[in-house]
Design brief:
Elements lengths: L3 E6 L3 E3 L2 E3 L2 H12 L1 H5 L1 E6 L6 H7 L8 E3 L13 E3 L2 E4 L2 H12 L8
Parallel strand pairs: 1-4
Antiparallel strand pairs: 1-5, 2-3, 5-7, 6-7
């Protein structure tokens, strides 16, 4: 895998008899709006709300379906500030703050406050 892959829930999905969005996925979209060059370096995938989220589980194995998740490209340096997990030989980050820390390390952007 040559590019980092970001898995998100699409905005405006149906749940609880209403349209909703994922706050952490929205945080990722905000970060990508602040730093559009990051978006160009990623493969972005939308996962369905329902489990299993096949795009994620095909890479990371059953039970690894949180969105947002960033699957880190082969050989990429994740830095020391983010909590990197490994499944099926793939490194990944499964929360918005760690993904933000990774982008700060990789691209020199600002670091999430409180991190």
């Amino acid at each position: 895998m040559t590019k980092d892959q970001l898995f998100l829930l699409a905005p405006g999905f149906e749940d609880n008899n209403r349209r909703e969005y994922c706050p952490e996925c929205a945080e990722m979209w905000g970060l990508l709006a602040y730093y559009p060059a990051i978006r160009e370096s990623l493969e972005i995938h939308y996962e369905p709300l329902a489990h299993p989220r096949v795009g994620l589980t095909s890479l990371l194995g059953e039970g690894n379906w949180n969105c947002p998740t960033l699957v880190i490209a082969d050989g990429a340096d994740a830095g020391e500030s983010a909590t990197v997990r490994t499944e099926n030989g793939r490194q990944f980050l499964d929360n918005a703050r760690d993904i933000g820390k990774y982008f700060a390390h990789k691209f020199g952007t600002a670091t999430p406050r409180g991190s």
